[in-house]
Amino acid sequence: MADIPCSSQTGHSDHRSYISSRSSQFITDFIQPVIVVHGGGAGSISKERSERVRLGVTKAALLGYNILKDGRSALDAVEEAVVSLEDDPEFNAGNGSVLNEDGQIEMDASIMEGKSLCTGAVSAVKSIANPIKLARLVMEKTNHCFLTDRGAACFAKSMGIPTVPGEKMMTERNIKRLKKEKAEKTNFLDDVDNNTGTVGAVALDKNGNLAYATSTGGIINKMVGRVGDSPCVGSGGYADNEIGAVSTTGHGESILRVNLARLVIFHLEQGKNPQEAADAALCYMKSRVKGLGGVIVIDRTGEWAARWTSVSMPWASAKQDKLHFGIVPGMVHITDIGKGKNPPFCI
Ligand SMILES: COC(=O)C[C@H](N)C(=O)O
């Protein structure tokens, strides 16, 4: 395994061989639901922001975990977790999305469920609070996988999704960041710091179904109409019940060039565990196209990993009533969220 500056947390499965040797009913009874969420590959995060980011990712993970514990689907869990992150102005998705070169918000999102390989995606959508909900509607209510811009807006209207004035979704922080970016014009490849906050989730439910969801405002000062990796299945994420689920973050153009999510899935298929598969794919992206980013992964047995090559990547996971959370290499906080235990906040 190549030595790369990846950082991570990994949850090892203790029942891989057990699962493959039992009946499917038994498997259903035995599967421990798992969710992992991320708040985007990023540079250094100030102490003050760290706390808000911690609250955001742990809240999203717990929301999704409670859905899984109630016996609902991985698809519901990843959608709800991502909605919660889209609603949080701390993250670059939905409310809080970064601005393009025209000072507007254009958002991308995609979702996929691993039983049927059905997927839905939207790109360049404006004035919608939760692009991930629209992506799910594309998946469930149309014969297509991907709608963009005006077509996506018309479809949203036909589904009764209310529009939100663009200004309402713009934060002071993002208005200032665009001004700064226009003045300094940094190169994303060298500066993932400025492009924080894409959000994503992967989950495994009690029925063995896997799903992923990814949502983003893209990269700051992007060209009008620029579409990144996040809505592109195979780049921004992938889910296949027979293999695993992945959501990605980082430099979109690099992720697109290597099909990062599908590359992780490929390595899982070849027998690597989630940590090894994530590292191999991130390492390839770094060496081949000099791209930085991060991934969250769950394999079909529920083993999981959060790995990144950017300076930081806020992430949280929940499995077996333990909530894990981290932002930077080596940082892992574990909280007991079993019955009678107080979660780290109220939801
Ligand atoms: C951390 O930033 C991102 O994840 C941006 C997103 N991947 C895009 O390029 O649209």
Structural write-up:
The structure is a single chain. The chain is an alpha+beta fold and 347 residues long. It has one domain: (Glycosyl)asparaginase (Glutamine Phosphoribosylpyrophosphate, subunit 1, domain 1, 4-Layer Sandwich). The chain is built from eleven helices and 14 strands. Strands 5-4-3-7-6-2-12-13-14 form a nine-stranded mixed sheet. Strands 1-11-10-9-8 form a five-stranded antiparallel sheet. A hairpin with a 4-residue loop joins strand 3 and strand 4. Helix 4 runs antiparallel to helix 5 and helix 9 crosses helix 11. The relative contact order is 0.20. The N terminus is likely disordered. (2S)-2-azanyl-4-methoxy-4-oxidanylidene-butanoic acid (FL6) binds next to strand 9 and helix 9.
